[in-house]
Specification:
Blueprint: E1 3-10, E2 15-18, E3 21-24, H1 26-34, E4 46-56, H2 63-76, E5 82-86, H3 92-102, E6 103-104, E7 110-113, H4 126-139, E8 145-149, E9 152-155, E10 160-161, E11 170-171, E12 179-181, E13 185-187, E14 201-202, E15 210-214, H5 221-231, E16 234-239, H6 252-261, E17 265-270, H7 283-290, E18 294-295, H8 301-314, H9 318-325
Helix pairs in contact: 2-3, 3-8, 5-6, 8-9
The structure holds aspartic acid.
C-alpha cells in the first residue's frame, strides 16, 4: 500500500467562519479529516497529516513559506510515495511553480489542492479535491509538482488561477492537462517527463527583490525607473499580446539600458494567457529585445516570478540568469527557436 503525506498550509479548504470572514482553523480541519469515511476506504493510500504553523491565507505566502514546504517534502521524501499540499487558491500557482524549481530531480507526485468552498460548508468542493489528489499522489504516475482542482490535473508551473467563483479555478492555457478526473482518472502519460536519474535535492530560495509590472495604455515608464534600475533584481514585464510595449524608445530604452548595467534581469511575459512572447514580431516589442530583455515565451507570470527567485538563488551572474530564463528547466515553457 502506498503512503501519502498531507501537508495542510492553510487556505479556504480548512477555514471556518469568523466575524471578520473565513480564517484557517487547524483544529476544525484535523477533526473534519479524521471523520471523513472516504479517507479510510481500502482504495485510498495510507496517510499522515502535518500542518504548518501558522496556517495561512495563501495571500500571505512568500519565499520563506515556499522554503518551509520544500523542506517538509525533503525531510519526508524517503518515507512517502507522494505528497498532497493543501493550500489556498489565491497563490497556489505561485507555490506550485516555486516548488517545481526548488525540488530538483523529483521522482514522486507533489499535488497541490484546496477548495473554493470550505470543508465546513455543505457544498464544499474540498472533499473531492482532497480525495482525488490523494489517489493521484498514491498512484505515483505523475512524478512532478501539479495542481489538482475541479477534475483537472495540471502541471504546476503551467497553471494559473482563472476563476474566483467557479469550481474549476485553474487552467494551464499553454499546456494540456496531465490527467482528467471524470468517472475514471485518465492520465495523459505521453506528456510526462522520463524518470530523473540525479539525486533528489531541495534548493532553498533566497529572498531576492523581484517585481511584476503590468503594462497599460499610457504607462509612464519614467515613474518606474528607480525600482527597475536599482531596487529590483528581476522584473517580469507583462506586456501586450506577443510582447509589445507602448513606447517609442526615448523613455524606455535608456531605463532598460540602466537596468542592464545594474544587473536587473527583465523578463517579458504576455498579458494574454494563451500566447508565446515574440519580441521580434512588432516594432513595439523589438525595443525590449534591443535593450537586453529576455523572452518569457509561453511561461505564466507565476512561473516567471518563481524561476527568477530560483535562478537568483543559484547564480550570481545576470547573464547566466538570462540564458537560463529562456531554457526549459522543469517543463515550464515550450521551447521555440523563434526567440
Ligand atoms: N484567500 C484564500 C486563500 O488563498 C482563497 C482560497 O483558498 O480559495 O488562502
Amino acid at each position: 500500500m502506498s503512503r501519502v503525506l498531507i501537508l495542510h498550509t492553510g487556505g479556504t479548504i480548512g477555514m471556518t467562519k469568523t466575524d471578520k470572514g473565513y480564517r484557517p482553523d487547524g483544529a476544525y480541519f484535523r477533526r473534519a479529516v479524521s471523520e471523513m469515511d472516504s479517507l479510510k476506504a481500502p482504495e485510498m493510500p495510507e496517510w499522515d497529516l502535518l500542518e504548518t504553523d501558522p496556517l495561512l491565507d495563501s495571500s500571505r505566502m512568500k519565499a520563506e513559506e515556499w522554503n518551509r514546504i520544500g523542506n517538509v517534502i525533503a525531510e519526508n521524501y524517503e518515507s512517502y510515495d507522494g505528497f498532497v499540499i493543501l493550500h489556498g487558491t489565491d497563490t497556489m500557482a505561485y507555490t506550485a511553480s516555486a516548488l517545481s524549481f526548488m525540488l530538483k530531480n523529483l521522482n514522486k507526485p507533489v499535488i497541490l489542492t484546496g477548495s473554493q468552498i470550505p470543508l465546513c460548508e455543505v457544498r464544499s468542493d474540498g472533499r473531492d479535491n482532497l480525495i482525488t489528489s490523494m489517489m493521484i499522489a498514491g498512484a505515483g504516475k505523475v512524478r512532478e509538482v501539479c495542481i489538482y482542482f475541479g477534475g483537472l490535473l495540471l502541471r504546476g508551473n503551467r497553471a494559473t488561477k482563472d476563476s474566483a467563483d467557479g469550481m474549476q479555478a485553474f487552467r494551464s492555457p499553454n499546456c494540456p492537462p496531465l490527467a482528467t478526473a471524470g468517472i475514471a482518472i485518465q492520465y495523459q502519460e505521453a506528456s510526462y517527463p522520463s524518470v530523473r536519474s540525479g539525486r533528489f535535492e531541495c534548493i532553498p530560495f533566497s529572498n531576492v527583490p523581484i517585481g511584476v509590472i503590468k503594462v497599460f495604455p499610457g504607462i509612464r515608464f519614467d515613474l518606474f525607473e528607480p525600482i527597475i534600475t536599482s531596487q529590483l533584481k528581476g522584473v517580469v514585464v507583462e506586456a501586450f499580446g506577443s510582447g509589445n510595449v507602448p513606447d517609442e524608445g526615448e523613455v524606455l530604452l535608456p531605463i532598460l539600458e540602466k537596468a542592464k548595467s545594474s544587473g536587473t534581469v527583465i523578463v517579458v511575459c504576455s498579458q494574454c494567457p494563451q500566447s508565446t512572447v515574440n519580441m521580434s514580431a512588432y516594432e513595439a516589442g523589438s525595443i525590449l529585445k534591443k535593450a537586453g530583455a529576455v523572452s518569457g515565451m509561453d511561461m505564466t507570470t507565476e512561473a516567471a516570478v518563481a524561476k527568477l527567485y530560483y535562478l537568483f538563488s543559484i547564480y550570481d551572474d545576470p547573464e547566466q540568469i538570462k540564458f537560463n530564463m529562456e531554457r526549459n528547466i522543469r517543463g515550464e515553457l515550450t521551447r521555440s527557436e523563434d526567440i
